[in-house]
Amino acid sequence: xxxxxxxxxxxxxxxxxxxxxxxxxxxxxxxxxxxxxxxxxxxxxxxxxxxxxxxxxxxxxxxxxxxxxxxxxxxxxxxxxxxxxxxxxxxxxxxxxxxxxxxxxxxxxxxxxxxxxxxxxxxxxxxxxxxxxxxxxxxxxxxxxxxxxxxxxxxxxxxxxxxxxxxxxxxxxxxxxxxxxxxxxxxxxxxxxxxxxxxxxxxxxxxxxxxxxxxxxxxxxxxxxxxxxxxxxxxxxxxxxxxxxxxxxxxxxxxxxxxxxxxxxxxxxxxxxxxxxxxxxxxxxxxxxxxxxxxxxx
Length: 298
Description:
Radius of gyration: 24 Å
CATH topology of the largest domain: MetI-like fold
Strand content: under 5%
Number of strands: 0
Oligomer: single chain
CATH architecture of the largest domain: Orthogonal Bundle
Largest sheet: none
């Protein structure tokens, strides 16, 4: 019994580790292997996949369109993740200071938005920006902006398309981020805030020197997740493209991989692009992940 006792934690962890390795590790390894093969439509019907080494990576990195999509994706991710985090922190602080009924109303609204099926939400958003019957164009035209009569937000230009997409993504991302940061705010000891206030610290100084250092691990974690989600965003972009957006001009990394793999059956190239996205994500988030581990050790 004494010999088995030290093994109990590992035995308890074994099912979870096996689950992760099976459902996350295997696809990742398989994707990495495919990126070194010329795996296309023929291989789905039993033809052997030839090993091509780094050819897929050379093709991807030598394609100007890939760099164009990568640049747009990074800018889009920086915009959506940055605005989401700023608004989420602001809303969390507002919830902390709000009255109980107002806080309950905000929490309920956030849960409803977060729980709404994405396709259902996108259907509503498509109606809002519809060129002929959309509420957005109607309101803008009512205020004298006649150029928005019949204006197509999704087909007029890539930047208006991405503006609509970013609004939808930020709207859908804020609830989870706000609730998580608010939960962290509730752990700030009121005695610390009262002591800082008695020492003459203004609200902004209390926020900077007392509140933020305590909630920063949660803010960093949500920020990392937001960067990962927004860098590989797919559903919102793909659905909006089907509603009028020109895919070659509005592609981001998620839809680019989908079109390369599913639409064109170039699974080797798609796997190489997906692997590059993974490496880019690791590079971007490595500093924040290291900070979280360091704080955890402290």
